[in-house]
Amino acid sequence: MKYHQIDRDLFIKNRAKFMAQMKPKSVAVFNSNDIYPVSADSTLPFAQHRDIFYLSGVDQEESILLLFPDAPYEHQREMVFLKETSEHIAIWEGEKLTKERAYEVTGIKTVYWLQDFEKVLFEMMTHAETIYINTNEHYRATVETETREARFVKWWKEKYPAHSVAKSNPILQRLRSVKESEELDLIQKACNITELGFRRLLPFVKPNVTEYEIEAELIHEFIRNRSRGFAYTPIIASGNNANVLHYIENNQQCKAGDLILLDVAAEYANYSSDMTRTIPVSGRYSSRQKEVYNAVLRVKNEATKMLTTGTLWKQYHIEVGKLMTSELLGLGLIDKADVQNENPDWPAYKKYFMHGTSHHMGLDTHDYGILTEPMQANMVFTVEPGIYIPAEGFGIRLEDNIIVQESGEPFNMMRNIPIEVEEIEDLMNS
């Protein structure tokens, strides 16, 4: 991996938190992701399942984590199973975790090769009453491919029908949403790499540059700073492309006078950052573009102040809607009659700002978190209002990553990334 090794104490703490919430006499199993085929002998780049990474730091395929806090013997309480490596594999595929190296990474002393898993699991199940299975219950999830976890669940149900079943996901939703200090440092590192990419980009952008050339500048800077690349598929949307919320073609020429909406960010050590900026192709905003831009910026700044302990996600979005309504009235995009006659289920402001303002962020860009529960200290949220005006040929969105504090002002992890109109114009024309 490109990133520096993470101190295993983080994963030791994460496992301890998870096991403290398990039922008595229960086993929990977590699988790595598959390597997905493309065609012939081609595969997609491997991306680790975030749950096994969160709990162990293992970042390779064909790995399993087994937790059994009430196991008869101490060495059985935490176990990791790895694909057996060899000199042949090292030559053809590169270094894989040895048993010794796995202990350095995970802090788990009991390491088996994968071929021993079924035998060891059988022994553990003779002492256990319940097994925790790891299903994907994220509110945005749409899973159409049978994953390694799903195959394990099918196999387990057939093999051990008399055992009770529990779900690991509700525990992980809460644990992963509140970050340890080490995790905040890793997210900050991803934000810092994103800043380097953005600063590289500003003097590069000129009329007639293509969206994909911009993408190339960013990926260059991300990788040279130990990122694997983009935390998510980049959106580089010039002109009216910005009014397509998930525009990812990135194949158009950027025209003089247009704006470019950049929803782009780096990952680091599997942790995401998530930034949006909107910049002028010609290096200067028009008066109308500046007017709308500053309206979005005011909403972002006021919304950020609301990300405090005890805040409810649903009520927060209602309050942000009120801020946006006021700005749209000031811009002449809606009028008082629009507001008075609005449908409460789709308020007037939704015509120009149709998506949510914030989501949890961490190991996943849209990270784990239970939206019906109050915000807590050390949760990380995006804040990303936007105004989209197809009739005027542009859309503007601005986005930062924010840590909820125990007390006081929320902490902006992207505080050093240029966002004010004047600073962006100065850097683009320097």
UniProtKB/TrEMBL annotation:
UniProt name for this protein: Xaa-Pro aminopeptidase
Annotated family: Belongs to the peptidase M24B family.
Swiss-Prot/TrEMBL keywords: Aminopeptidase, Hydrolase, Manganese, Metal-binding, Protease
Bilayer-spanning residue ranges: none
GO biological process, one term: proteolysis
Leading EC class: hydrolase
Organism of origin: Flavobacterium glaciei
Tree of life domain: Bacteria
SUPFAM superfamilies in alphabetical order: Creatinase/aminopeptidase, Creatinase/prolidase N-terminal domain
The keyword Manganese is annotated on this UniProt entry: yes
The protein's required cofactors: Mn(2+)
Listed EC numbers: 3.4.11.9
Molecular function via GO: manganese ion binding; metalloaminopeptidase activity
